[in-house]
Specification:
The chain is an alpha/beta fold and about 110 residues long. The protein contains four helices and three strands, in the order E-H-E-H-E-H-H. Helices cover about 50% and strands about 10% of the residues.
């Protein structure tokens, strides 16, 4: 619905799920929506799914990171809910850790242990 009505509404896809991102990218291509169309944005929590954010940005998609701000007693329940609701992130955690390790090796960064 949204991609058919971009003249009236914008889309913010807040997702840490790689497959969901691909789905929207494919839909945008199918609907001939430019990668950098100001009405379509991808977003992730700061520090999560950076591989998705960086690759989207590299392909000129609009990407933003958001950072919950406030007292810890208010922010932590929010972050816990996000983690519980987004079980798909759990499957990507090992993959993301391996990407970080690969990048550290590429940069020749030693462990501080």
């Amino acid at each position: 619905y949204i991609t058919n009505n971009l003249e009236k509404i914008s889309l913010f896809a807040g997702t840490h799920n790689e497959q969901s991102s691909y789905l929207l990218m494919d839909l945008m291509e199918e609907k001939k929506i430019k990668n950098n169309d100001d009405r379509v944005w991808f977003g992730q929590l700061y520090g999560m799914s950076d591989n998705i954010s960086f690759n989207l940005a590299n392909e000129k998609y609009n990407v933003t990171k958001y950072l919950p701000f406030g007292p810890v007693k208010d922010v932590m329940p929010y972050l816990i809910r996000r983690a519980e609701e987004n079980t798909s992130v759990a499957g990507q955690t090992n993959r993301e850790l391996n990407l970080i390790k690969t990048e550290r090796k590429r940069r020749k960064i030693q462990n501080s242990n």
